[in-house]
Amino acid sequence: MTPKKNLTPFIGRMVSLALLATLVFVPRAETALIDRVSEKVLPNGLKVLLLENHRAPVVTFQVWYRVGSRNEDHDKTGLSHVLEHMMFKGTETIGPEELSQKIQENGGNYNAFTSYDFTGYFETMSADRIQVALDLEADRMKNLMLREQDFETEIKVVMEERRLRTEDDPKAFTMEQLAATAFQLQPYRWPIIGWMEDLTRLTVQDLKFYYWTYYTPSNAFLVVAGDFETEDMLPRIETAFGSIPKKAAPDQERTIDPPQIGERRIIVKRQAQLPFLAMAFRVPNIRDPDSYTLEVIAGLLSGGKSSRLYHRLVREKQLALHVEADHSLLSRDPGLFFVAAEVLPGGDSTDIEKVVDEELERLRRDPVEPRELQKVKNQLEAAFISHQDSLFFQAMVLARHEIVTGWRTVDDYIPSIRKVTAEDIQRVANRYLIQDNRTVATLVPLPYTEGQPVSEPFSIRSDTVR
User: What is the largest CA-CA distance in the chain?
Assistant: First the structure.
């Protein structure tokens, strides 16, 4: 079984602290990323993206399936994540722990992650050992063994994972309830890890049907980045994966919520140390140019200690312990723009909400000064470029764009950020960051009982679980 790591993307950056150990840092190339990618679609429908980088003798090999919690049914939530666990329990040719053992014996790092929109698996290894990853991934794409005894064990693991990460964490529980209220039709309304009631009803037959439907070459793609020659790597991939039978790609269309017509509010009462306030505004994804403006707005609000909300709430008024704004740029369907804050001891969430409302009204009313706008653009551009110093991020950013718009849009990020104007910010804030388009969740703390676990500092979203 893979190590337990919680991958928490933020503001479209796509790389989490949990993966830092797998990153291989290499000097940036000056040419556009898309100009260095080779694409091939195998006869069975498997797309292959190859990105050569010879700065270090390492390769990261990633298999992405176009299936996540958005593909589940309302009474079978958690299937994607449970299946991810089961992918490490062996195939017709290797035993339950043999996959992990083989990778470790060859000095590799590996993990997997499930999101609303995808499930991904990766190995990062010395370039001369990467054939091990090819063979193992091809094997479990077609020969996975889903045994009842393994399922009975892993479903208990996932249920315990849910207890620890969500039900015993009041802020995570509040964010889960917020999403369930903000969406009424879209599958984003349920958690990636699944509702506990659904987890208790899942069966190994559910997993077998899910695997048969979604784990097919036509619903998957590979991203390989690192020290290899395309002329050598592509035939090896064709040999490993080419014999897997072709199936029709499953339908990916899902119901989208209609426009929100009024503010929604919920109160969550849980054992907690501090109050917590979170807002969610319904917004478009990367397919709409407004999404890049929302990226800039998130930076204006919480991009560092000089940002507007941090300055007002943390430094000036000392109302919040932490504040964060976040935008789901790379969600496959329209997502949410979040603002959340943890209240300082003795504080009141209503005071924080008042300041947030003031800052949002300021965005809607007053043009951003050129210097402040340029600073935020510089921050976003620097973060995007610096993350490309890793092979893992280069592969991951290609994959995240492939899921939503196709990988060739990856180099649109910086030009699109640069185009954002003060007038765009006012227009977008007046369209989306308004009271009638938001859902507000307030956590009201109840006293802890002796021995009750204390939650960790919050992260505004967790749209990927491991």
Answer: 64
For 50, 94, 248, 259, 402, the CA distances from 47, given in Å and listed in that order, are 10, 26, 14, 35, 10
Rounded Cα distance between 177 and 464, Å, is 17
Q: Which 3 state secondary structure label does DSSP give 409?
A: helix
Place of tokens 């079984």: 1
| Sheet bearing 37-41, strands edge to edge | 37-41, 47-52, 220-226, 58-65, 119-126, 109-115, 464-465
- Whether the domain at 17-241 and the domain at 264-458 fall into the same CATH topology: yes
How many Å apart are CA 4 and CA 76, to the nearest integer?
23
- What are the residues whose beta carbons fall under 8 Å from the beta carbon of 158, sequence distance 6 or more? 78, 81, 82, 85, 193, 194, 199
- Structure confidence by residue, pLDDT tens digits, 242-263: 999 999 999 999 999 999 999 9
The answer to whether 51 and 395 have CB atoms below 8 angstroms apart is: yes
* Strand duo 37-41 + 109-115: pairing: unpaired
| DSSP assignments along 91-116, one per residue | BSSS-TTHHHHHHHHTT-EEEEEEES
State the Cα–Cα distance between residues 81 and 202, nearest whole angstrom.
12
CA pair distance 353, 387, nearest whole angstrom: 33
Domain edges within the chain: 17-241, 264-458
Percent of the residues in the chain that have a pLDDT greater than 70, as a whole number: 90
CATH architecture of 264-458: 2-Layer Sandwich (3.30)
pLDDT of residue 389: 84
The CATH H-level superfamily of 17-241 is Metalloenzyme, LuxS/M16 peptidase-like (3.30.830.10)
Span 304-362, pLDDT tens digits: 999 999 999 999 999 999 999 999 899 999 999 999 999 999 889 999 999 999 999 99
- Spatial neighbors of 99 by CB under 8 A, at least 6 apart, are 88, 90, 91, 136, 140
Taking alpha carbons only, the member of 133, 129, 167 closest to residue 240 is 133
Question: By C-alpha distance, which of 342, 353, 338 is closest to 461?
Answer: 338
